[in-house]
Amino acid sequence: MSHTIGYAAIGLMCAVLLVSLPLQAAETSPAATAVANNVEALRAAMVAGNEKELNALVDDHLTYGHSHGMVQDKAAFVNYLLGPKAPGKFKWIKISDQTIDVVGNVALVRHKFDAENELPDGKITKAHILVLQVWKKQKGNWKLLARQACPLD
Question: Rg for the chain (alpha carbons), in Å?
Fold first, then answer.
């Protein structure tokens, strides 16, 4: 009887492992890793207001939707983050619960986005939102093509 229970436990563990392998492989694929690295680079560039990095990471056809309804193109998005008195000046951004699904040359990224902004008048605002990003691979590089956010609370 103890061998039967032991074999059953081993069988169950193997079944769980086999079922979870595709998910782990998808999360650690080279494409998903490259996209995750670019999501992080974009987060850092947004906080730093780094114009060169923002322009390098964002597609020329960007549509960037904010949780409050404003939609920006590439130029408006980048300008919104530049300078010490920029309307979108971030003090910090934290991304969590991220998933990445790569389908050919497109990657769908979902995550929670928590941030603190300093408005031009000195007021501090906070964001607690859900985000969907669409990244497109172009000439070997992943670029943000679209982003839409919605309130979490």
Answer: 20
Amino acid at 132: L
pLDDT digits 0-9 by tens, 23-77: 333 457 999 999 999 999 999 999 999 999 999 999 999 999 999 999 999 999 9
Does residue 19 sit within a domain?
no
Instruction: Please list the residues that pair with 138 across neighbouring strands.
Output: 141
* Site of tokens 């670029």: 143
CA 112 centroid distance within chain: 8
| Number of domains, the chain | 1
Q: Domain limits at 47?
A: 30-151
Picking from 88, 86, 87, 108, the residue whose alpha carbon sits closest to that of residue 98 is 108
Query: Which 3 state secondary structure label does DSSP give 84?
Result: coil
